[in-house]
Design goal:
The structure holds 2 protein chains of 2 kinds. Chain A is an all-beta fold. Chain A contains no helices and 12 strands. Classes of the chains: A mainly beta, B mainly beta. Chain A binds chain B through residues 4, 6, 9, 32, 34, 36, 42-46, 49, 51, 90, 92, 94, 98-106, and chain B through 3-4, 31, 33, 35, 40-45, 48, 55-56, 91, 93, 95, 97, 103-106, 108-111.
């Protein structure tokens, strides 16, 4: 069955620290991968997406993610976090035709000023 | 704001009552999805439409749940005979299926929070 796992449920960092959030997926066939973010009181919005090509993708606000096919992983990174990055982050996977999106359980990031 | 809108934002009901949620997607988006999210979990797929056709429905969805998108624009999600386990945030998202820079990107609404007493 298709699934997405996020192992870090809650991460606390100080400003300027580096961030890496883990995401592993279980999917047969071609997979499209996403990271979504939900800031406090706001709706979910796309950070970045990977369909094919360069496995290192860059998104908004300085975020990037690396697709490692052999590890079934799509980890999110940011070299230096800011207080404004405090949010919940969701990894998601979808088949080639985007008929369903499977989401991980989310990681709450708390950045201390 | 021309984003996805959902109504009502919050609904409190008693067990056994019926509730209906409405979603207005971004106008040019032909795909519309319903998701459910409970505390500490990510969004869980319920169903999706391409234009007015309901193409897939989660096997987890009981017969008490029904969704429509009559003219390929707005959509409604109805829950009949609500149970306490139905308490959740119901999310709607739309996407412009096809090519373009937003290919595969889900645009979410703010959600409709259901509390069943």
């Amino acid at each position: 069955a298709q699934s997405v796992s996020q192992h870090n449920h809650h991460v606390i960092l100080s400003e300027a620290a580096s961030l890496e959030l883990g995401c592993n997926y279980s999917y047969g066939g071609t997979v499209n991968l996403f990271w979504y973010v939900q800031y406090p009181g706001q709706h979910l919005q796309l950070l970045l997406k990977y369909f094919s090509g360069d496995p290192l993708v860059k998104g908004i606000k300085g975020f990037e993610a690396e697709f490692i096919k052999s590890k079934f992983s799509f980890n999110l990174r940011k070299p230096s976090v800011q207080w404004s990055d405090t949010a919940e982050y969701f990894c998601a996977a979808a088949a080639y035709n985007f008929n369903k999106f499977y989401f991980g359980s989310g990681t709450k990031l708390n950045v201390k000023p | 704001d021309t984003g996805v809108s959902q109504d009502p934002r919050h609904k409190i009901t008693k067990r056994g009552q019926n509730v209906t949620f409405r979603c207005d997607p971004i106008s040019e988006h032909n795909r519309l999805y319903w998701y459910r999210q409970t505390l500490g979990q990510g969004p869980e797929f319920l169903t999706y439409f391409q234009n007015e056709a309901q193409l897939e429905k989660s096997r987890l969805l009981s017969d008490r749940f029904s969704a429509e998108r009559p003219k390929g624009s707005f959509s409604t999600l109805e829950i009949q005979r609500t149970e306490q386990g139905d308490s959740a945030m119901y999310l709607c998202a739309s996407t412009p299926f096809g090519g373009g820079e937003h290919r595969g990107e889900l645009f979410f609404g703010e959600g409709s929070r259901l509390t069943v007493l």
